[in-house]
Amino acid sequence: MTITEKILAAHAGREDVSPGELINAKVDIILANDITAPIAIREFEKTGAADVFDRDRIAFIPDHFAPQKDIRAAEQCRMLRDFSRDYNLGLYFEVGRMGVEHALLPEQGIVLPGDLVIGADSHTCTYGALGAFATGVGSTDAAAAMATGECWFRVPESVKFIYYGKLNRWVGGKDLILHTIGSIGVDGALYRAMEFEGETISSLSMAGRLTMCNMAIEAGAKNGIIVPDRITEEYVRPRAKRKYTFYSSGSDARYADVREYDCSKIPLTVSCPHLPSNTRPAEELSSVTIDQVVVGSCTNGRIEDIREAAEIIKGRKVHPDTRMIVIPATQQVYLYALKEGLTEIFVEAGAVFSTPTCGPCLGGHMGVLARGETAVATTNRNFAGRMGHPESRVYLANPAVAAASAVKGRIAVPEEVL
Amino acid sequence: MILKGKVWKFGDNIDTDAIISARYLNTSDPHELARHVMEDADREFPSKVGAGDMIVAEANFGCGSSREHAPIAIKAAGIQAVVAKSFARIFYRNAFNIGLPIFESEEAPAGIREGDEIEIDADRGVIRNITKGEEYAAKPIPPFMQELIAAGGLIEWTKKRIKAS
C-alpha cells in the first residue's frame, strides 16, 4: 500500500484498503475557520449530538476575515468564540494568539505524522508535508465529524512525483509545485493523492515541503503527501505533545502514474492570470508592471519565506508605483521577524508589515485590488477576482521573486536587484 | 427522480470564487448568497436565472475553495441540478452533503447549448436534450451517495447513526 492507503486503513480499522473503496474513518483533528465554522456550527446543532466527540481535537481558528474586518465578520468570529466557550474547546485561537490555520497547526505541533486530518478549508492538504493524510472538506462534513469523530472517504489512487537534481538559486518548493501544476493542469490530479519524493525532496526544508503539499489542491488532488524522514523528525519532535506514527509506502504500492522532474531545469516560476496552471518562467515576464506585492499566506508566510523576501529587500526601497504588504502567517513568525530585525527591513523599505491574517489572499481585507490592478503574490490562487475586483490580475510567485518585483515595480528575478 | 429545466452553459474550471466571491462570505445566509451566484463568471446571471433552471458546465466545476457557500448559493438560486464533465472533489462532496443534485457526463456538456431544455432521469442515469432530441449518459451515482441522498443529506444520515449507536 501507499502511505495514503496505510493511513486511511489504520484509521478505518482495516488491514488494507484499495483505491475507489468508500470507507468511514476516524479523524484525529478537525479544523474550521471564521468563514466555514459558522455553517459547521449550525449543521452540528442539527445533528442532535449531546456533545462534540472530543473537545481537544477540534480546532477553530478565526483567520480569514480576522482581525474582524467588518461587523458581519465580527459576528461570524463571535460564533466561533461562543461555540468554543460553550463546548470548552481546547484548540480555539483568539486574535493575537492565532495565525493562518495551515501555518499555525504544524508550527504548534497540533497536526502530526500519521494523523488523519480534515479541515473545512481546501488548503488542509498542507499537513501532508508531515506525513499525515490531510484533506479539505465542506462545513457539513466538518459538522458531522465534530459529532461522530468520523468522516467518509473514497480511497484515492496515488500518483508519484519524483524530483531529482540540484535546485537553481532562489528556486524552492513554490517553484516546484507551480511547475508541477503547470505540467499537469488544474485538474491533473483530480480525486488523487500526490506523493512527492526523490533526492530533491529529501533535502528540501519542511517550509518548502509545506508549500508544495499546500498547493496539491490546485491540481485538484485529494491530498499531497511526503513520506516522513529525518527532516520531519527534527521538525516534529520539539513540537509534538502526543504520540505520532511514521508511515511509508510499501514496495507493493501501486501508482496510477509516475512523473519525474529534473529540478536543474526548473526555473523561477510564475503562474499568470487566471489559473495556477498558467505558468511561465519569471524572467520572461519582465514587461508586466505591478501595483501590489503580497508576501504571506498559508503557502508562503512562514519565517523562511519572510527571511527570503527580507534578504532581497534589505537596503532597498519598494518601487514608488508599487505597494508591498508583508504578512507573517503566525504570531510566532511575527515575533521571529521582530527579533531578527526583519520587520525593520520591510518598514524601512516602505512596505506594510501586518498582523497574521489570510486577508488579501482571498480578497478579504488588508490589500484588496481595484479594477484593472495587478499583483504579484506568494499566495496560492489567481482566479479572476480572487484578490479583489473581478477585473484585477494576480501572478503567483515565490517570496524572492515577489520581493524583487516589489523593488522593480514589475515582475523581476532576484539577480536584477542584488 | 426526474428533473426538467432550461440550461445555462459554462466552460471549464469554473472556480468557487466565480460561483460565489469571497467578498460575500461575511454571511452564510442562503438567500443573500443566491443574489450573487455566478456573478464573477456572468455579471447578469443572478437576475437572469429562474427557479428550476439547470447549469451545464465543462470539466472541473467548483475547483478551488472548500466553501460550502458555493453549492448553497446555487441551490438557493433555485437551480435544480448541475451537470458537468467533471467536478472538483470538495464541491462534489459538498453538493451531495447539502442535497444539490449533480451529474457527471462526458457527452452532455458537448451536446447541450445554452437555452436548451433538458430532462434528467436520475435513476436511469440519462440526460435527455428535449430541444435537440438527443440523449446522453450520466455516470451512475455511487451506492453510498445514493444512501446520502435517500437519507436527505449528510446531517440526516448522521442523525440516524447517532440515534442507532
Outline the fold blueprint.
The complex is a heterodimer of chains A (418) and B (165).
Chain A (H helix, E strand, L loop, with lengths): L2 H9 L10 E5 L2 E5 L3 H11 L10 E4 L9 H16 L4 E2 L8 H7 L8 E5 L12 E4 L2 H10 L1 E5 L3 E7 L8 H12 L8 E5 L1 H4 L3 H9 L8 E3 L4 H7 L20 E6 L6 E3 L7 E3 L10 E4 L1 H4 L2 H11 L9 E4 L4 H9 L2 H8 L2 E2 L20 E4 L15 E4 L2 H10 L10
Parallel strand pairs in A: 2-3, 2-5, 3-4, 5-6, 8-9, 8-11, 9-10, 14-15, 14-17, 15-16, 17-18
Antiparallel strand pairs in A: 1-7, 12-13
Helix pairs in contact in A: 2-5, 6-8, 11-13, 11-14
Chain B lengths: L1 E8 L6 H4 L10 H5 L10 H4 L5 E4 L11 H8 L4 E4 L4 H10 L3 E3 L3 H4 L5 E5 L4 E4 L4 E4 L5 H9 L2 H11 L1
Parallel strand pairs in B: 1-2, 2-3, 3-4
Antiparallel strand pairs in B: 1-5, 5-6, 6-7
Mean pLDDT of chain A: 98
Low-confidence stretches of chain B: none
CATH structural class of the largest domain in chain A: Alpha Beta
> How many runs of DSSP E, i.e. beta strands of chain A?
18
Task: Please tell me about this protein's structure.
The complex is a heterodimer of chains A (418) and B (165). Chain A has 418 residues and is an alpha/beta fold. Chain A has two domains: 259 residues, Aconitase, domain 3 (2-Layer Sandwich); 148 residues, 2-Layer Sandwich (Aconitase, domain 3), CATH 3.30.499. In chain A, 30% of the residues lie in helices and 18% in strands. The model of chain A has no long low-confidence stretch (mean pLDDT 98). The mean pLDDT of chain B is 95. Helices cover 33% and strands 19% of the residues of chain B. Classes of the chains: A alpha/beta (418), B alpha/beta (165). The interface between A and B is large, with 52 and 43 residues.
